[in-house]
Write a structure and sequence with these properties.
Number of helices: 20
Distance between the termini: 58 Å
Largest sheet: none
Shape: globular
Helix content: over 70%
Order of helices and strands: HHHHHHHHHHHHHHHHHHHH
Strand content: under 5%
Length: 556
């Protein structure tokens, strides 16, 4: 009798798992898919999740979260007595729950992810991972996935409390959904930014400064998000349904694209110098730019009062982004390894369009200047359309004024980028230059371009105020200021444009083959090894082996 029961139980279990031939086809498909997903799961995610859930930091934070939620549930309810029975009390309770949840989501988890990756570098375990078949991108995504899982646990633990606050009336369901979405999006974005800073400080003396910068960013982000969230809870959503939908799409687009760029930057810092570390970053930056231009273009249909701040913010953000990233691209190593050159495009059309995505300061400078110029041309059209709206007449800004200012920004960036290239070339003669030095060189160049002519003018005029002249054409602060006031002399404007064009085209003419590196043929031995790995992967499919000893196929 017992044997019959056991056989029946085993048969039912096999049927449930989808392993029985008599099981439905969809169940067998789900079983195969689940097996494949489990085998292909990122090993770093599994390792990080196990370590995180067993760590003292998670246990203490999770315990304090539960205790704080329980304490506020009791204390807040007692403070609202007896009006909690007949007056809307959800905003007060929800504000307390938000403050309890925001600390681990926006501060603890990003800081823990930063410390995790920094610890991998300090302990030398990252070097062990680099000899496996795991790519730097998988390592970074594993860290982010572990942080996202911790956030989900914190969110699920406090969800009953949020539901309790919702039943007290005073906050509608769409506002609550926006609040939770904002918190999760901000938490993931801040985690990505924190992870980006982890590989920067390879020396212990600089790790303290990097940690302070990360803490400052996290505190500023928590303050900014908290201000928006508390106003949303207390005052409600002041936007219409159409404007709310636009804001949701715009925030998600911005967070997803900038997060991808930061993830590519983090993976590039973990990638050996012999590999291509630039193409992924440049593609991510280009996608980020295209997405934001689309957001700015669509914002015009919402009216002047809504579109103007969006267009100003996106334009300013993209200008700062391309100036800073262009400076770092100008500080990249000029030498290109044979492995990178084997990946270069070989056709004429590919070399014409895709060569600017390859590593190197020459291609980086052209890529940044071209993207900045194209972006400003498109944003100028958006500005022109917004400024022609009836409500924009009160500003007194002509579209031609914006056009001239944007043209001056491109010209000054060309001049400054050439100065950065010269400074980096001098530093590289005796020192090893990292890309972060390019950002410092850009800051120094822009500062000297503004201060030197102004100081000379002050000295020649006995340190008294004087009027703008052609000797101040490199003073970008003064020139942009009077150009915005529409008082910049025409001669000065075209002189600045000519200087920028000369710097750009001179860069292209005198660098020659450095701008267009030649492709190298892939050695026969490498092709045979790749084909052998493909044959092994097709003949013996199986789970991913992070040590590369099994049937793992490395597409490189």
């Amino acid at each position: 009798m017992s044997a019959t029961v056991n056989d029946s139980t085993d048969s039912n279990l096999l049927t449930i798992l989808g392993e029985s031939p008599a099981a439905p086809r969809w169940l067998r498909f789900v079983d195969r898919w689940a097996t494949w997903a489990g085998d292909a799961l990122n090993p770093i995610l599994v390792k990080e999740t196990r370590q995180a859930l067993k760590s003292r930091q998670f246990v203490v934070t999770f315990s304090l979260l539960l205790f704080a939620a329980l304490a506020w549930s009791i204390a807040g309810s007692l403070l609202l007595m007896p009006r909690i029975y007949f007056l809307p009390s959800a905003p007060t309770m929800l504000t307390g729950y938000y403050l309890v949840l925001a600390v681990p989501m926006l501060l603890v988890v990003p800081l823990a992810a930063y410390r995790s990756l920094e610890g991998e570098i300090d302990d030398g375990t990252l070097e062990l991972l680099s000899v496996t078949s795991l790519s730097p991108r998988q390592i970074v995504l594993g860290k982010l996935g572990s942080a996202a899982l911790q956030m989900m646990l914190y969110f699920v633990a406090l969800f009953p409390c949020v539901a309790y606050a919702y039943t007290l009336r005073g906050v509608d369901l769409p506002t609550l959904a926006i609040l939770m979405g904002l918190l999760v999006t901000a938490g993931l974005t801040l985690t990505v930014v924190a992870i980006f800073f982890a590989p920067m400080a390879r020396v212990r003396s600089s790790q303290v400064g990097t940690l302070l910068v990360v803490m400052l960013i996290l505190c500023a982000g928590e303050f900014a998000v908290g201000t928006i969230a508390i106003n949303l809870i207390q005052l409600g959503n002041p936007l219409s349904g159409r404007e709310t939908g636009f804001c949701v799409v715009a925030v998600l687009t911005f967070a997803a694209t900038i997060g991808a760029a930061f993830l590519m930057g983090t993976a590039a810092q973990l990638t050996p110098e012999s590999e291509n570390r630039s193409t992924g970053i440049r593609v991510a930056l280009l996608v980020h730019e295209i997405a934001l231009i689309a957001v700015a273009t669509y914002s015009q249909v919402l009216g002047f009062q809504f579109a103007m701040p969006v267009v100003w913010f996106i334009t300013s953000h993209l200008i700062v982004m391309w100036i800073s990233t262009g400076a770092m691209m100008s500080a990249e190593a000029s030498t290109m390894t044979p492995r990178i050159r084997r990946e270069l495009p070989s056709s004429f059309l590919g070399r014409l369009l895709l060569i600017w995505f390859t590593p190197g300061p020459a291609t980086g400078m052209v890529f940044a200047i071209a993207n900045l110029s194209i972006m400003l041309v498109m944003m100028n059209e958006v500005f022109s359309n917004v400024l022609l709206m009836p409500d924009a007449m009160s500003l007194g800004i002509a579209p031609d004024t914006i056009r001239r200012c944007l043209g001056l920004i491109v010209a000054y960036f060309c001049i400054a980028a050439l100065g950065v290239r010269m400074i980096i070339a001098l530093l590289r003669q005796r020192n090893t230059v990292r890309v972060g030095i390019g950002l410092a060189a850009m800051a120094v160049t822009l500062l000297l371009m503004a201060i030197v002519p102004y100081s000379i003018g002050m000295h020649l005029n006995d340190y008294r105020q004087y009027e703008y002249s052609l000797w101040q054409v490199t003073n970008w602060i003064w020139s942009l200021g009077i150009a915005y006031e529409n008082t910049l002399p025409e001669v000065a404007f075209w002189l600045i444009i000519g200087m920028g064009a000369t710097a750009f085209f001179g860069h292209l003419l005198f660098l020659g083959r450095t701008v267009l590196p030649q492709r190298l043929a892939t050695p026969k031995r490498v092709l045979e090894e790749r084909q052998l790995r493909r044959n092994r992967a097709e003949a013996h499919p199986g789970p991913i082996d992070p040590l590369g000893l099994g049937t793992t196929y490395d597409p490189r």
